[in-house]
UniProtKB/TrEMBL annotation:
Organism: Auxenochlorella protothecoides (Green microalga)
Family: Belongs to the IMPACT family.
First-listed, main subcellular location of the protein, grouped into a coarse class: cytoplasm
Protein name: Protein IMPACT
Region (Disordered): 107-151
Compartmental location: Cytoplasm
Length: 239
């Protein structure tokens, strides 16, 4: 699978799970990862080229193209990413989150559109969404009687060591992927439990994307992601 180290391949797989396969293209042979992000009327595409000696020695090479966003703001946002690189530490997720937060802040600072302007509303249908809190087992008689669980925790101990582990309670490999998510996002002093009800449709590997997305949304909601409480104060030197 190309010349990338196994840890780097796992990092890229985690990025795909976090942002979704429809937003991420990964070429393990060439070491190129392309991620598409959007917020309101703005969107950007980040191309990340990983040198053979990443992350031990060299940082990734980053190229960003944006639509509906001020180029100067974007340049300022990515200015310090390379200087923030610490050899041996994975940075792809942190860099992507810095770009996403910069874009969201810029969109939030824009004045509301005048009457008569604005784009079409985008909606996503939810399979068999039922009001009133109906359980999947009630909506689908063929559904499993109970949920499969993915569990992971990561705590920093007083002596500087880490206590972390994962468990797959009926959902093979989900716990390990959740733990990897906690590690690359820098989340600490947290335990995440994601339950999945089988509703009669085989999702295959796509289920891991949904599991990681559910975990990430909860971490964001609880302000547990590393760096998210320091808005617009990311690294600032040129990439």
């Amino acid at each position: 699978m190309g010349g990338l180290l196994e840890d780097v391949q796992e990092e890229l797989c985690a990025i795909s799970a976090i942002y979704g396969d429809d937003a991420v293209d990964v070429d393990l042979d060439s070491g190129i990862c392309t991620v598409r992000l959007s917020s309101g009327s703005a969107s950007l595409t980040a191309g990340v080229l990983l040198p053979a000696d990443y992350p031990a020695v060299s940082p990734p090479h980053l190229e960003v193209a944006s639509t509906g966003m001020d180029d100067a703001v974007l340049d300022d946002c990515i200015a310090g990413l390379v200087e923030s690189f610490s050899p041996g530490e994975p940075v792809i997720f942190q860099w992507l989150e810095a770009l996403r937060m910069c874009m969201e802040d810029w969109v939030a600072d824009q004045p509301p559109p005048s009457p008569g302007e604005g784009g079409d509303e985008a909606t996503e249908a939810s399979d068999d969404a039922k009001p009133g809190g109906e359980l999947p087992s009630q909506a689908h008689p063929e559904a499993s009687p109970g949920p499969d669980l993915g569990i992971a925790y990561r705590f920093q101990m007083g002596n500087g060591t880490w206590a972390m582990d994962s468990d797959d309670d009926g959902e093979s490999a989900a716990g390990g992927r959740l733990l990897h998510l906690l590690q690359i996002t820098g989340a600490q002093d947290v335990c995440v439990v994601v339950s999945r009800w089988y509703g009669g449709i085989q999702l295959g590997p796509a289920r891991f994307t949904h599991i990681n997305n559910a975990a990430r949304q909860l971490l964001v909601q609880c302000d547990m992601l590393e760096g998210r409480n320091t808005k617009s104060k990311g690294p600032r030197s040129h990439a």
